[in-house]
Specification:
Largest sheet: 5 strands, mixed
Mean pLDDT: 86
Oligomer: single chain
Structural class: alpha/beta
Strand content: 5-15%
Length: 466
């Protein structure tokens, strides 16, 4: 996953935000059968030369095919300045040059504006044809996305060629998109701090949560401006669910937050105390005092959660030796960007042709691996080898890649209708706990109840026609 501000674990890609929690879960995280066409099978070589941006203005519909010219379609992703992103533009050029039937134009919309812009375009009957799926449950329940199960069968797509989590059904059991890349959280660590403390580096198997907390506390010297960890609380939903602790689950046939469960309350309080009582991680005031600097890159924190999208940034800016390991507890969802087709697209055959090339055929995957645009979502040996040996990839990656891509270490986060609105109740309560402003038992149950009212309402709407 590249740093496009596709930051659907959005705040997670920004560098120094204390309040994160539930946001990590949100982006984890999005035609008629006869319309499918065969793919080009082109072997066009990737070019690194600058190209004229093939970019449509946000809100601009694709131009229809004229005469014998290509059908023009749009692909909408979250990005702040996609017109100047040469890698993305060259990826589109690679497809456009490989065949003459379809021309793709890229629409980049900032993360915070993405949902409203998509909804406005659909309401105006000028939808993008291909869409980065930010919140699958909401998009499906609102009728934004086209189910592609029939197209998969029609073209004999083998979804087992994708890595675990890259192709998964939505809440209704249907498939709406394929993974564009594979994004995993990792535990980054400062080797120099570990060496100075005489502590062995994390193994390729990773820590348990208790082992991690113990090491972090041993590395903490708050009175000297050093802490063991930067942002453990950023992925609370993942950490809870990998441990089998109730969080967001299907209960009696409908989605329900279970943050009132004693085990969940206890776990949240344990992490809060790790931050605010033991001070093994910078607390909110300590993070703020750094003026927005990343505590890990600044050499203030021995460990930090970041992803395989962060290799280049750390390589370019860290003034110390560093490595990566699996996250504490190991298991996690694949939070890479999923790409699908708009249900109201007027060019669904062309969109399907492009979607297959972009995700299922190896050419685009190999190009992205070569240019450091994210870990492959397709099980392609050449692309994976290129990614692992990339100039920004840490040496430890080759030792942990098997663990990261093991389907047994992957699970899917529940993404039901209404989750974005419901999280607006969960996030503030979680923030209060992680900032030491409230006890978990005092705020999480009430927040859970309010969020569940939203989920119940949206679930009923989504299933009313069944």
């Amino acid at each position: 996953m590249r740093e496009l501000k596709r930051q659907g674990t959005s705040a997670g890609r920004s560098q120094a935000r204390f309040s994160f929690g539930v946001a990590a879960m949100l982006c984890m995280a999005t035609i008629a059968t006869a319309c499918g066409t065969s793919s080009s099978g082109s072997n066009t070589a990737a070019t690194s030369a600058a190209v004229a941006p093939a970019t449509a203005a946000a809100g601009e519909a694709a131009a229809p095919a004229t005469g014998n010219g290509p059908t023009e379609i749009t692909w909408m992703i979250w990005a702040d300045d996609v017109a100047n992103d040469k890698n993305m533009q060259n990826e589109i050029k690679l497809f456009n040059d490989s065949q003459s039937e379809v021309k793709v134009n890229l629409i980049g919309v900032p993360w915070g504006d993405f949902d409203s812009k998509l909804q406005a375009m659909i309401a105006a009957d000028t939808p993008p044809d291909v869409v980065a799926i930010k919140s699958e449950g909401d998009y499906v329940s609102k009728g934004f996305m086209l189910p592609i199960d029939d197209l998969i069968k029609q073209d004999n797509i083998d979804i087992n060629k994708f890595v675990g989590g890259a192709v998964a059904p939505a809440y209704d059991g249907k498939i709406y998109g394929f993974g564009h890349d594979t994004a995993y959280w990792l535990l980054y660590y400062n080797k120099d701090m570990f060496d100075a403390a005489g502590i062995p580096y994390p193994s390729a198997k990773g820590y348990t949560i208790d082992e991690f907390m113990d090491v972090a506390c041993k590395l903490s010297k708050p009175d000297q401006g050093q802490w063991g960890m930067h942002n453990f609380h950023w992925i609370m939903s993942i950490l809870a669910q990998q441990q089998g602790i109730p969080y967001l689950n299907m209960v009696d046939g409908q989605p329900k937050y279970q943050l009132d469960d004693p085990k969940t309350v206890e776990f949240f309080q344990k992490v809060s105390d790790f931050i605010n009582v033991k001070n093994c991680q910078l607390n909110n005031d300590q993070s703020t005092s750094l003026g927005g600097a990343d505590p890990f890159i600044a050499g203030k924190a021995a460990m930090s959660l970041n992803g395989n999208w962060g290799f280049g940034n750390v390589k370019d800016n860290a003034q110390f030796n560093w490595g990566v390991a699996p996250i504490p507890g190991t298991k996690q969802p694949n939070v890479g960007m999923k790409i699908g087709i708009a249900k109201t697209s007027k060019n669904q055959a062309a969109a399907w042709k492009f979607l297959k090339w972009l995700t299922y055929e190896p050419e685009a995957t190999r190009y992205r691996a070569e240019h450091g645009m994210g870990q492959p979502a397709l099980n392609d040996e050449q692309a994976m080898t290129t990614f692992i040996s990339g100039p920004a990839s840490p040496a430890e990656l080759k030792d942990i890649i098997g663990s990261l891509t093991d389907p047994n270490n992957s699970f899917k986060l529940l993404d039901p209708p209404g989750i974005a609105e419901a999280s607006g109740h969960i996030q503030p309560a979680s923030d209060e706990v992680m900032q030491g402003l409230a006890k978990a038992a005092d705020v999480l149950p009430a927040a859970s109840a309010k969020a569940n009212e939203v989920l119940a309402k949206e679930w009923a709407k989504a299933n009313a026609s069944k």
